[in-house]
Amino acid sequence: MNKIIYTTMIVLIALTTMPCNGAPLDADSLKRNLADSISTTQPAKRRFITPVTAKTNVVLPPGKDVSDEIIEQYITGDTAKALIEAKRDSLRKAYTHYPRLNDLAIGFNFIDLVLAAAGQKHFNVDLSLTLNMWNRLQPVIELGIGKAKSTPDDMNFTYNGKISPFARLGVNYNFMFKNNPNFQALVGARLGGSIFKYDITNIQHSNGYWGESTTTSIPQQSSQALWYEIVGGLKVKILRNFSLGWFVKFHNLISEKKNEAGQAWFIPGYGTRNGSLAFSFSAYYTLPFHQKTTQETETSIAEVK
Amino acid sequence: MKVFFYTIAFTLTLLLTGCNDNSCYDNGSSLPLVRFYMSSKDANVSVSGVTLKGIGAPGDSIYASNETLNEAYLPLRATQKSTQWAITLNGTGGTTVNDTITLDYNTAPFFASAECGAMFTFDLTRAECTHNIIDSVVIIRKDVTNVKAENLRIYFRNNDMQPIE
């Protein structure tokens, strides 16, 4: 067997070392080549390889946090489906899915009280209940009262909006639903309504040409209004269960009862007529429905980060 | 995050408290707008040599004196149910022609807006006149508010008046 190999190698070496022009090698060159080839083609020493056992049929223990469902799929042999599920499962860990009823926030909008103390002639205050569902959707109900009393400079009347109730219903959407509920970026919509009363007193009327001057009033006016609001804002945890949040509101009247003696200047819950923008600033107290879940969530988010 | 929250809240508060429009774009009181017409052509005309005077005005003060007008605001008396105006046309030969317009109405206080204030509005019920130079007075819009709108038309008989183009 070895003789055949050696012979074949000699022939091949002779062929490969032949000049390209096809001229035969001389006898000395051929001898040198043969000597070289023989010296480099000594039989190799026998190699010893440690045998290895195949792992193909070994079931590795599942990784930490792999759900039982995925493990079951591996065991039953549906590996492809298990891999897909495992990938989805990892995504679920990347942003926690919060429970349907995550927490309830009680809010108090107090910005108008501050502005009233600074000289504003009207105010709205309201209490709100915000249900945080999945840390994403937040149905909101706001109940409050509004009041106005104003005698504008250089004007001829006193507007007296009596304390009247209002209500708003709506929903928020939390853009930061993947994150901790302590920080929320919200947009939403509201539908508001109010039934209210007002007087306009001390109306000074004078006509320079006729030389007449008279005082009158528009008493006991009542009206009702319905409006919508598009809101956007932020809510941030300050301390423990306390948060602060503000909203910018674009609002517009949908309907309103108009009186013969003119329209109301101030609508409780809506504000004054001039301008389509409003602002609220509220303090919130949050009641979590799942204290453990929230803590676990914070821990898992921290781990992921 | 908290710094961001407070910064935006403060900025928006400043913006929102500073962007209210407090202008009144209508009249500050309710005045009936009277336009002058030529009866033969039913066209708005410019009348020269017009003198307007409220009958009963203190000191017989003159509202407009020998002016060229095609329209005029005639203030009504809020404390009365009727107001009379005297119209005098000065002719080219030194002649004058007088007519009297009587307007009856109901009054009511009205709150226009915080910017324009509160005022009286009038509901015109009757318009009459003498017929020396005036052919007729017609109520076009009976509710007189602070919104500029034509309330009355006075039709003159004089065919020499120049229509407004």
Write structural notes for this entry.
The complex is a heterodimer of chains A (305) and B (165). Helix content of chain A is 25%, strand content 44%. Chain A is built from six helices and ten strands. In chain A, a hairpin with a 2-residue loop joins strand 6 (212-239) and strand 7 (242-256). The longest helix of chain A has 16 residues, at 79-94. Chain A is rod-shaped and about 140 Å long. Residues 14-23 of chain A have low confidence and may be disordered. Chain B has 165 residues and is mainly beta. In chain B, 10% of the residues lie in helices and 52% in strands. Chain B is built from one helix and eleven strands; from the N terminus they run αβββββββββββ. In chain B, strands 1, 2, 3, 4, 5, 6, 7, 8, 9, 10 and 11 form an eleven-stranded mixed sheet that branches. In chain B, strand 6 and strand 7 (117-129) form a beta hairpin. Chain B starts with a helix and ends with a strand. In chain B, 30% of the residues are buried. The mean pLDDT of chain B is 83. At the A-B interface, strand 5, strand 6, strand 7 and strand 10 of A face helix 1, strand 6 and strand 7 of B.
Largest sheet of chain B: 11 strands, mixed
Number of strands of chain B: 11
For the secondary structure, the number of strands of chain A is 10
Beta content of chain A: 35-45%
- Topology as H/E string of chain B? HEEEEEEEEEEE
Distance from N terminus to C terminus of chain B (CA atoms, Å) equals 66 Å
Q: Which chain pair shows the most residues in contact?
A: A-B, 40 and 37 residues
**Cα distance spanning the termini of chain A:** 67 Å
- Mean pLDDT across every amino acid position of chain A: 81
Tell me the quaternary state: heterodimer
Q: How much helicity do the residues of chain B have? A: under 10%
Radius of gyration based on Cα positions of chain A: 42 Å
Instruction: Choose one word for the global shape of chain B.
Output: elongated
Strand order of the largest sheet of chain A: 1-2-3-4-5-6-7-10
Measured by DSSP, the beta-strand proportion of chain B falls in over 45%
Structural class of chain A: alpha+beta
Structural class of chain B: mainly beta
The average pLDDT value of chain B, as a whole number, equals 83
In this structure, how is the largest beta sheet of chain A organized? Answer: 8 strands, antiparallel, barrel
Unreliable spans of chain A? 14-23
Q: How do the SSEs of chain A run, as a string of H and E?
A: HHHHEHEEEEEEEEEH
